[in-house]
Structures are given as C-alpha cells and as structure tokens.
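User: two proteins, same treatment. go.

Assistant:
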Amino acid sequence: MDSDDEAPPIVKAKRRRKPINKKTKVHLVFNEDARRDFLTGFHKRKLQRKKKAQEELQELLKAEKKRIKLEAKEQYKKLVHSYKPIPELEEQFAKEYDVEGTTVSVLELDTDLLAETNFLIGRNRGQIEDTTVKEEEEEDESDPEEQNEEMPGMSLKDKKPEKKKKEITKKEPEKVLKTKKEIKKDLKKQSTKSVKKSKVFQKLNEIHTLKQKK
C-alpha cells in the first residue's frame, strides 16, 4: 500500500535563456550640451522657418516682377506696332497726285503762315480790346489841367474803376502720339505701381517694418 501511495518525482523542464542583444541596448547618459541643444532647438527651428518663408516671398516677388515686365514688353510692342505707318493709307494721303498728265500737290494750311503772307486772313487775336484800353488811357492823359484844379477830397468826377487785363492763357494741345521714350516711361510707372500693389510686396514691407520696430 505504501508503495502505491508514493507520488511520482517532479521533473523540472530546463528553459533556454535568450542571448542578450547588446546591439540594441539603450544606454542612458546625461549630457549637458545635448540638453541645451534640445531646449534651444525650438527657437532655432522658428528662425529657420522664418528665413525659409522670407526666401519664398523673395522668389515670388521676383516671379511677379518678371511677369509684369513681360506684360509691359508685350504692351510696348503692341503700341509701337499700332503707330507704324500703313503703306496703303500713305499712298492715299500722298502729297502729289498725277491726274490726266498734270500733277496736283496737296498742302496743309496754317493760320499763322497765312497771317504772315496776307493781313486779311489769319487767326483772330482780339485786337479790339487793346484799342479800347488805349483810347481810355489817351483820354486820361489829355486832361492834366482838370486833374490839377481839383482839391483833394473834393473831386467832381468819379474815379473809373481800373479794368483788370485778362490774361489769355493758351492751353497746350494734348499729345496724342508719344515717342518711344515716353511710352517706355509710362509703362515703367505702371509696372512699378502694379508691383507695389501686389500682396507679396506688401507682405515683405510688413516684415521689414516689424523688424525696424524691434
């Protein structure tokens, strides 16, 4: 009975130990310089982002200027091409024509030229006003005795109000045709205005003003 009641011996299973992986082992080391770089890295990265954004804005501004310059060139070419004389029209507006064996010449009449050659033809210059003013001055000069006889403060005649001479201002005729230099100047002004109105230029100005305030 005693032999049957005895328990079987316990056999312990041997487990294989995993080899230590020294390659991926983490070593914790306190380094003051590395800590400082990590903490100050936020500010550095912020400055880097700002610098990158400014460079991108500069590139956009260059592209905008290039585009406006090309548009101005195209506009200039169109304007110069529109001013070119058309040969068909020049033939119609020729100075001399051959009509049945006789040559007919066409001349432009100028009022100043006609006034120099012929006194009866020319531009009205308003000579009537000058003659009336001269007559009034002669009448005033012809009565010196009457002026001397009058006592101060007891004048019988009312003083004539002095007539203000009207200054005739000649308006310059508006220029319709412009030279190449003037066209280039106008286009340059327009391009500078359009560059200044662009959002990229305004953004760069804001950044510049903020830097100056600091």
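Protein 2:
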Amino acid sequence: MVLVWKDILLEVRSRELVISVLVFGLLVAVVFNFALDVTPQRVTAIAPGILWVAFAFAATMAMSRAFVREREQGGLEGLLLSPVSRDAIFLGKALTNLLFMLLVEMVLLPVFAVLFGFSAMSFTLIGTIVLATLGFSLVGTLFSAIAAQTRSREIMLPVLFFPVILP
C-alpha cells in the first residue's frame, strides 16, 4: 500500500501524466466524433469501439510510466533489494495503474456520453469498464515491467499490449 501511495503522490505532484492522458483521451473522443457520422442508429455500433480505443491508448500512455520512472531514478533496484516480495511490488504498481485509469475513465465516460449521445449510467456498462480496466491494469503492468528493461521501451509496450487486449 505504501508503494501505491508513493506512486499516486508522485503523479499528483508532477501532474504531467494526468493532464496528458486526459487530454489525449478527450482528443480521441473529439476526433472520432468529427470523423464519423454519428447517428442514433449507428451510435450503439460505433461508440463502444471508440470508447475502447480511447481507454486502451490512455492506458498505454499511463502504464508506460509504471516502471520507467523507477528505473530511470534508480528506485527499481532499491525496490528489488528491499524485503518486499516481487508480488507486492507488481500488485502495488497494478493497483496504482488501476486507480489512475479508473480516474481517467470517470472523466472520459461523461464526455463520450455527451458527444455520442448514449447513457453512461448503465450498471452493465460500468461493471464491464471496471472489469476490463482491471484486466488492462494487470496485463499492462506486466508488459510495462518487461518493456522497461529494453532500449526501445516506448514502442515495446504497445507492441506487447495491444495484441493481448484486442477484443
């Protein structure tokens, strides 16, 4: 839990990731809204895919930072040498990613509802989003740990992540 708190405090203090992920997600929504002819008949077929794309791209941006910052600042070696189990480190990073993505989704979902004209207050929709985000978080954290150890980490995470999370 301390690791989760530390990561959240670092993100709150810097604000760079929060702002960039939110702006990126909003841009995806606006671009698709202008690019596609969204009629009430087509919205049920189009909106879920666009929402998924926005969440997946935002997740990739957010999760790429999970281990990279630790590695660049030398904190990863300290974490691995500490008496904390590697499972706890992974779960702490995954929980941080989950909380961050749920926050982003809470902002993006109402925007999508307004732009695409669908109800965002469905328990089925919210439950599906929470479960999908949990999966995104676990898979993304694993691949983020792998990608952080490579020289081409910026491209490695999407290359590993997107084929696995495709519906």
